[in-house]
Amino acid sequence: MLPALRQAIAILLLALLPTIAAGLWHPRRPAWQSDEVTLPAAAAWGNTVLWIDARPDPDFAAAHIPGALPLNEDHWDTMLSAVLDQWDPRRKIVVYCSSLSCQTSRDVGRRLRDEANIPNVFVLQGGWEAWKKEHP
Amino acid sequence: MLKRLLLLFILLAPAARADLQWASTHLSTTVAPSDRLATAEFTFTNTGSYPVKVIGTHTSCGCTAAVSDGKPVAPGQTGKIEVTFKTLNRRGLYEEPILVDTNDPNAKETSIFLSVLIRDSIELLPTLLFWQPDEPLTAKVIRITVTQGFTLQSIYASCSNLDVQINVDPVTPGSDYKLIVTPHAHNLKATISINAAIQGKPPRVLTAHVRTI
Asked: Is the entire prediction scored with pTM above 0.80?
């Protein structure tokens, strides 16, 4: 029994080595800390949240989360100025786009973090579809 | 008889299959925002035994388009998916997944990826300087760098608020500068305009932002 257990542990440890290597050095490794936030968690932050709508202009004009500001990359410079007017370092930014599969909110979040150096930038899981589901 | 038919079915079933061999499912390109579009062509070969047709493509952003001619690709022939990505006003690295749907029951969906690195001829980092509520209002720096292959001929910076002192310090004239920013008041919002003339390019105005609490 004991040798079998030893062998099982050895196999597990051997399997762990490539996993750790991939986690550290793989070019497409997942982030250690996710920047995504669920709707209930973001809603719990209350008025400290600055909602950012990364969808195209017509979608924002049709409907958006109350108080959200538009920021899409088609008009980045002009829209960023308006966002920064409402932002201060004590606020959390939550970016959303259309749905779970859309990438735009992640790109907008990355630019706010990397270019503007803004901390506390999150991406809403499920995006606008998740909000609409909770607020039909 | 039934056994023979079953045996024949088992033997023929794996033979009559389609198989798509992609030249690459990941392509990378580096472009400038002024290029407006990044393009890539993903090619595949039908190594199976019956024609395959691309019946649809799905992208994760309105900035990406993926098209196929929709014609069936005969065994041994190659097909392609042309992908375009809008680069205007975008910066940094974009990883765009594209889902390709085919009528091949063995590979109905294939994910392909286009990585686009968008590098401007001149870049500011960071584009926002802010001071926390209890933070002393000491100088901070915005780095201005010119991409290799370009030369900055002149640079001039101005600020919308007189309570913000700015100074352009050349680290390597023509390619690397420090914009030193010192605010002298709390609760201010200011915009810095940086006028840059790069050899062989139209004059540019870049914007940075300053916030104190």
From this structure: no
Distance separating alpha carbons of residues A122 and A37, to the nearest angstrom? 6
CATH number attached to the domain at B16-118: 2.60.40.10
Residue ranges, chain A, pLDDT below 70? 1-2, 18-34
Supply the CATH classification number for the domain B122-212: 2.60.40.10
Interface ipTM: 0.77
Beta carbons within 8 Å of A93's beta carbon, 6+ residues apart = A49, A50, A52, A87, A109, A112, A118, A120, A121, A122
Determine contact: B25 vs chain A, CB below 8 A.
Answer: no
Residue contact B191–A73, C-beta within 8 A: no
Q: Do residues A52 and A96 touch, judged by C-beta distance below 8 A?
A: yes
Strand order in the sheet with B204-212: B128-131, B204-212, B189-198, B152-159
CB contact under 8 A, B94 and A88: no
Length of chain A: 136
